[in-house]
Amino acid sequence: MIPGARLILLGRQGAGKGTQCVRLSRHFVVPHISTGDMLRAAVREGTELGVMAKRVMDQGNLVGDDIMVGIVRERLSQPDTMGRGYILDGFPRTVPQAMALDEITAELPLDVVLDLDVPREMVLERLSARRVCRDCGTNYVANGSEKHPWICEVCGGDVMHRDDDTPEAIDHRLDLYEQQTSPLIEYYSEHGRLAVIDGLGHPDEVFRRLTASVDAARRPT
Ligand code: ADP
Ligand code: ZN
Questions:
Q1: pTM, two decimal places
Q2: Can you name the CATH fold of 5-118+185-218?
Q3: Rounded to the nearest 10 degrees, how much is the dihedral formed by the CA atoms of 41, 43, 45, 48?
Q4: Nearest-CA residue for atom 9 of ligand 1
Q5: Each residue of 103-128: pLDDT tens digit?
Q6: For residues 162 and 52, is the Cβ–Cβ distance under 8 A?
Q7: Which long-range contacts (C-beta less than 8 Å, at least 24 apart) are formed by 204-209?
Q8: Which residues surround ligand 2, an ion (CB under 5 A)?
Q9: Ligand 2 center to residue 144 CA distance, Å?
Q10: From the centroid of its chain, how far is CA 118?
């Protein structure tokens, strides 16, 4: 395995994207850049961005492209991402964001865009059971038998139900995914950098598929 990689992981909400991104970031030793986590951090800090983002997120809507591109542009100019690479989680989410990212990464292009494919019918249940650590963002799945309050195994923070994981907001986010984000699959397949990965099966097996396709994409031809 060669450390360092420049990756995007696309996929429907509830496909297991967050957890697989954390694993990929450890495997390739690159920062995991989750725009959702960055926005939630801004909400906790109560910054101007956070106050605006909270309103948008709680309704399941998307934060504006210009704001998101600005955040990612800034993050990708840091020494760690410039040097080792990154895995992007939750960005790009619209075609204009993808076009802006092409411009940002013109000198150091992406290795591969991974699409973690799980059908819509399969993700609803996973999303309503989803819990997340307020402090470090680790995802959990509730099975109804957990102790309250629930403490994060990774950092000791509080594990909570996300404010935007209501059935209405989830349904709306999945609609937005079909409308705004699924066109990215075509966008990247035209640019020849897309690998579609079957997201069904044991998480270890899905992880193996993901790393195999990154390795294949980076093999010198
Ligand atoms: P999910 O995958 O469940 O939608 P995320 O944690 O990726 O959750 O994002 C949570 C919310 O943050 C989104 O519903 C949206 O409001 C906002 N958000 C995150 N990334 C972006 C982005 N690239 N563009 C616009 N909004 C975003
Ligand atoms: Zn935690």
A1: 0.89
A2: Rossmann fold (3.40.50)
A3: 120
A4: 36
A5: 999 999 999 999 999 998 888 888 88
A6: no
A7: 206/16, 206/20, 206/116, 207/20, 207/23, 207/24
A8: 133, 135-136, 138, 152, 154-155, 157
A9: 20
A10: 14
| Distance, CA of 101 to CA of 145 (rounded, Å) | 43
What is the CB < 6 Å shell around ligand 1? 13, 35-36, 39, 56-57, 60-63, 68, 90-91, 93, 97, 164, 173
Query: Which of these is catalytic: 6, 12, 17, 131?
Result: 17
Residue with CA at minimum distance from ligand 1 atom 18? 36
pLDDT confidence of residue 126: 83
- The packing angle between helices 65-75 and 35-45, to 10°, is 100
The CA R_g of the chain, rounded to the nearest whole Å, is: 17
Report, as ranges of residue numbers, the positions in the chain whose pLDDT lies below 50. none
Length of the chain (residues): 221
Domain range annotation of the chain: 5-118+185-218
2 C-alpha to ligand 1 centroid (Å): 30
Tell the residue nearest (CA) to atom 15 of ligand 1.
62
- Please indicate whether residue 73 is annotated as part of the active site: no
- Annotation says 75 is catalytic: no
What is d(CA 221, CA 204) in angstroms, rounded to the nearest whole number? 28
The predicted structure's pLDDT at residue 1: 62
